[in-house]
Automatic annotation (TrEMBL):
Domain of life where this protein originates: Eukaryota
Protein name: CFEM domain-containing protein
Location(s), subcellular: Membrane; Secreted
Keyword Cell membrane: no
UniProt lineage: Eukaryota, Fungi, Dikarya, Ascomycota, Pezizomycotina
Length: 310
């Protein structure tokens, strides 16, 4: 992990006077004493290298060479949590404020959740109070989807965001980082369940609309395949690390465990998910060819299905 490091000038002047003292006794200077011990020799050696003048805060805070020198040293001498402390101190000293996009994240999450919730309420309100038709499988799957969506929103708003999602990592405590990743893990599992339920929802709607025997068989086959696909990815996500908790502990480099490659899992899920979507969407579109409709109406129906797919 590259750690661009910038450092304050005030203590450096003192450092200049007593480098020898510092390098032997380690903890003499107020500025330097804030840093973890592992980083002190790195800072001292970078200063002695002469990239920046000691009283030149602008240089120390912006020089890529100075930062690269300290960073590469800190990477070998410090643990990752210690490196983050180094980053926090130096960036604070250089008057940087950590970026924070948690408000936007919250607004987007709440807006999207509310809109989705309203549509689902409309759907059930209409079915139960106005049309009075019995609830079918697609309704139950809609309900199941909401049962997954709601905890996902709650975890994001009350867990992931307050613990640091959307903020610079160096402004978080190690506990917060672990907690964020743990909440993220939970929402990732829920997300895989969610995408599966939405696909099943479409299939169950098509099952209602296309009664032909062959189409029903194709739809049920796809339904079973999608369900297996979903269960497979949920399990793969949960058990990608051994022990499971290693997923949210491995970032600090101080725990033992093994993991499958998370990127590979995400890509495999995305690629196979899109392929499934295309296939699921193709089923009604292929049926349309057989309908006795004017081409204008056909285009209308195709558009309807495509909008639904969005
Ligand atoms: C940083 O600079 C010092 C002085 O030039 C040099 O001795 C040291 O090897 C450099 N460290 C790294 C990690 O590049
Ligand atoms: C980062 O530095 C600031 C200022 O010294 C301090 O208040 C804060 O607790 C530090 N945060 C972490 C995560 O170390």
């Amino acid at each position: 992990m590259p750690i661009p490091l910038k450092s304050h000038a005030s203590w450096l002047t003192l450092l200049f006077l007593s480098t020898a003292v510092v390098s032997t006794s380690g903890d003499v200077l107020s500025g330097l004493s804030a840093y973890p011990d592992c980083a002190k020799p790195c800072i001292i050696s970078a200063i002695q290298g002469g990239i920046c003048d000691l009283d030149n805060k602008a240089c120390i805070c912006s020089s890529a060479a100075f930062s690269a020198n300290v960073t590469s040293c800190v990477e070998t001498k410090c643990t990752i949590p210690e490196s983050l402390v180094v980053m926090n101190i130096s960036r604070t000293d250089c008057d940087e404020t950590p970026r924070d996009r948690s408000i936007e994240l919250k607004v987007v999450t709440i807006t999207v959740g509310t809109v989705a919730g309203l549509f689902v309420m409309l759907r059930f309100g209409y079915k139960l109070m106005i049309s009075n038709v019995a609830l079918a499988m697609d309704d139950w799957l809609t309900l199941a989807t909401m049962i997954v969506v709601i905890p996902n929103l709650i975890i994001t708003i009350n867990g992931t965001i307050p613990n640091g999602l959307g903020r610079d990592i160096w402004s978080l405590t190690p506990d917060q980082i672990t907690t964020v990743i743990r909440f993220f893990f939970t929402t990732a599992v829920l997300y895989f369940a969610l995408t599966t339920l939405v696909k099943l929802l479409f299939l169950s709607f098509y099952l209602k609309v296309f009664p032909t025997r062959v189409v029903q068989q194709v739809l049920w086959g796809t339904f079973a395949m999608t369900a297996l696909w979903g269960v497979g990815f949920v399990f793969l996500t949960i058990f990608q690390c051994q022990p499971i908790s290693y997923f949210w502990q491995k970032w600090d480099g101080l725990h033992d465990g093994t993991c499958l490659d998370a990127n590979t899992i995400a890509w495999a899920n995305a690629a196979s998910g899109i392929a499934l979507d295309v296939w699921i969407l193709a089923i009604p579109l292929l049926q349309l060819r057989k309908l006795q409709l004017k081409w204008k109406k056909k285009i209308g129906v195709v558009l309807m299905f495509l909008v639904g797919a969005l």
